[in-house]
Amino acid sequence: MDPSPACPICSGTDSERVDSLSPAELVRLHEHMGVRLTPAACESFRGVGKVDHLRCRSCGFQFFDPVLPGNAAFYRDLQDQLECYYPDDSPSFFLALDLAKRTGAKTVMDLGCGAGRFLDRAREAGLKTFGLDLNDQAVAAARERGHDVMAGTAEAFAASQPASRFDLVTAFEVLEHLADPAAFLRDAARLVRPGGHLAIAVPNDEGIYRWFQLEPRQWPPHHLSRWRRSDLRHLGERVGLEVVTLRADALRGIQIGGTLKTQGELELRIGRRSSPPGRLWPALATFLYRAGLCRLYLQLGNSLHAHYRKPEA
Q1: How many domains are contained in the chain?
Q2: What pTM was estimated for this model as a whole?
Q3: pLDDT tens-digit profile of 167-180?
């Protein structure tokens, strides 16, 4: 038996399989969600018979084997076929701007800045804006909006400009795309001035996504890992950051019914159920969530937010 791949968080090599999907099944799931992957995008699956969803037995972190980061054509398909692949607004943006205000930040570096929507709001709030992204199309769009944005990684930027440090560094929905999230967070921390702050957002696998396990964008070649609060705490401590806060979005009741219905449709699409999902259970779950005022005390929304502080020395 082949040994388990190393956990990206704790480096443990004892993991259990949670689920598996073939490339053909992933393509069908994407089609159901409105994205027809082109042959060039499907090259991301070359030589792969199945993708295993694994859970580390040591720390509980969930990741995938093999590691299949999406190629440029894959991300172009998503960007071209989804209306809001790069969102105009996000709760993450407002939390980060509130953090900037509370800490007196003057400069912000957004890693994976996309077309610069967060940087627009940061500039409106009086911050000097900088960004990095690997998508040339997005970099061009952010530059057209007047931001100081470069194509490249945090590692390359830190190596080429070792004196550049920022009051606040942000990375929204980036860690889950990376094969080595620990290396990324370590590089991101190098860009923060001593005493400065780092704001991270990832999809919340403790929330709505626990009932939406077949959402194809939560699988490779889009996402390479799944995240809980404990994972963000463990990772921050591992790279020498002070964990200040960990929180999640609130979940709107309307999301519950739609999510459960779509999960059932996805199961049907790949043959895991023989009939379309019914309406009763999604409607009942939505009613109970709303009746119990669960939104007020349960953090089950789409995203987790981590706020770290870099020690002074």
Answers
A1: 3
A2: 0.92
A3: 999 999 999 999 99
